[in-house]
Amino acid sequence: MEFRYLGNSGLKISEITYGNWITHGSQVENDVATQCVRRALDLGITTFDTADVYANTKAETVLGEALKDERRESIEIFTKVYWPTGPGGPNDSGLSRKHIMESINGSLQRLQTDYVDLYQAHRFDVETPLEETMQAFADVVRQGKALYIGVSEWTADQIRQGHAMAKDLGVQLISSQPQYSMLWRVIEPEVVPACEELGISQIVWSPMAQGVLSGKYLPGEGAPEGSRGADKDAGGNMGDFMTEPVLTAVQGLKPLAEEAGLTMPQLAVAWVLQNPNVAAALVGASRPEQLDDNVAASGVTLEPDLLAKIDEVLGDVVVRDAGQTDARAPKKRPT
Ligand code: NDP
Fold first, then answer.
1. Collapsing DSSP states into helix, strand and coil, what is residue 69?
2. Catalytic member of 54, 82, 148, 217
3. Is 82 a catalytic residue?
């Protein structure tokens, strides 16, 4: 496993980070979730990403239980705040001081730790003054409950504003967590250049487009049994990719992966890691064997002619519109 600095900080993270959205506390049983965490550790993954909202807090509980006997200094635990987890009261979501202060305490309890390494704003809250949010995050850091702060799915302008305020408050905003894969490149025109300038890394979600880039979903056929695409709850977020043109184009990557001596999952994970602004690919896994496969992408270099061939094969199914970050952002606080 190779390690990269997270933004302009001294914190090193495993360039393949294990995330537990959709899987822990919902799609997979707790014993399989624990086996995945054990396998991740055995394979050299030290960094784990979760959020209070995953499986409505259960994902944090499962991860906390699986990691509780690990030496705390040897792992990095990331979590997030924004989406609602409580009974849906007016202050049960967003980035108000009240919700941030209450949420961090709940997360620490469930994760069985005194601090998280990174506390992330899971979206931008249009209803709370940004000054209030950043002051609350700074206080969480000063209380020792989080070491660094980050954001997720913020636009380049929002990142600039948040970074400037964090700097004035003396805290380090060092990461941005957007969706990024061969198929979804909307951060390239604006978010990545802004972050390079500010010393912020991307830790990217769904690098395998939720499994689509593994090539296991064949055009015109049903999703394989046991896959996320076949699960009526878990598969609900895969609409961007479960289309005939996308699935057909993805099949065209198979000979390229073979030629490079990689599996399709390895090609997908290695692809995002070629971007120097990416500090980690946040991979999911519903079973331990998937991690064996995916982790072999660490340290792989993809040659420029292979990258060009990938672009040629995928053609116009790739989404590059920078406006997608704002277009998909919540327009009011969720309840
Ligand atoms: P991936 O794109 O890596 O998809 C993971 C899924 O793909 C697995 O659960 C598995 O699903 C399938 N898969 C993985 N490896 C293989 C393999 N080798 N062969 C075949 N299928 C495979 O990432 P996720 O969508 O899971 O997201 C990863 C993490 O990113 C999350 O856990 C979370 O930490 C973060 N995230 C953050 C978001 C945000 O808003 N900030 C939003 C979404 C995710 P299956 O076996 O069920 O088909």
1. coil
2. 54
3. no
Query: What is the percent of the chain with per-residue pLDDT over 90, rounded to a whole number?
Result: 93
Whose C-alpha lies nearest to ligand 1, atom 16?
290
**Domain containing residue 187:** 3-327
- In this structure, the residue with its CA closest to atom 14 of ligand 1 is 285
> Which has the closest alpha carbon to 210: 240, 175, 251?
240
Please indicate, yes or no, whether the overall pTM of this predicted structure exceeds 0.90: yes
User: Which own/partner contact pairs does 99-105 have at CB distance under 8 Å and 24+ positions apart?
Assistant: 100/133, 100/136, 100/137, 100/140, 101/136, 101/139, 101/140, 103/52, 104/140, 104/145, 104/146, 105/145
Alpha helices in 130-221 (DSSP H): 130-142, 156-169, 191-198
- Is 333 domain-assigned? no
Residue 65 forms part of a structural domain: yes
pLDDT tens, residue by residue, 108-128: 999 999 999 999 999 999 999
Domain-located, residue 332: no
